[in-house]
Every structure is written in structure tokens, then in C-alpha cells.
Amino acid sequence: MPKLKTNKTAAKRFKITGTGKITRRKAYNSHQFLHKGKSRKRRLEQEPVLFRGEQKRVKRMLVL
Q1: What is the pLDDT of residue 1?
Q2: pTM
Q3: Can you tell me the distance from the alpha carbon of 63 to that of 30, in angstroms, rounded to the nearest whole number?
Q4: Can you say whether the dihedral through the CA atoms of 29, 32, 38, 40 is positive or negative?
Q5: How much of the chain is in helix, strand and coil states, percent to nearest 5?
Q6: H or E element, residue 14
Q7: Could you tell me the CA-to-CA distances from 64 to 13, 32, 34, 41 in Å, in that order?
Q8: Under-50 pLDDT residues of the chain
Q9: What's the CA gap between 22 and 57, in Å, rounded?
Q10: d(Cα 8, Cα 16) in Å, to the nearest integer?
Q11: In whole angstroms, what is the distance from residue 64 CA to residue 59 CA?
């Protein structure tokens, strides 16, 4: 049976923590920061953990 290929777009967008959870980046965090407040910019820096259903789907794409 051939090797399973990793979905490269998913590999670039998601990170796996040491405990096995999958995190992602938030949107609206690349430019136009002048009109965004400090607290909003801080909140955008955080990397939220995916929900359980999404984690299953992403793990399948990452071949875990």
C-alpha cells in the first residue's frame, strides 16, 4: 500500500501542541493595524485550539 500524503495547505496552517491538540491562527491579523485597538490586536495574537470535530478532520489531512 502506498504512503499517505500530507495535505500541505493544512500543514502550513495548523500546529500540534505537545499534548496533541491542534491550534490555528486567527484571521484579520496581517495588516491595517492602525484602526484596531490594543486589546483586539492582543486577542488576535492568541492561537485558539480547534473543536473536537474539526480536530478529527485536520488530523486526517495531516495523516496523524
Answers
A1: 86
A2: 0.78
A3: 29
A4: negative
A5: 40, 10, 50
A6: strand 14-16
A7: 15, 36, 40, 32
A8: none
A9: 11
A10: 15
A11: 5
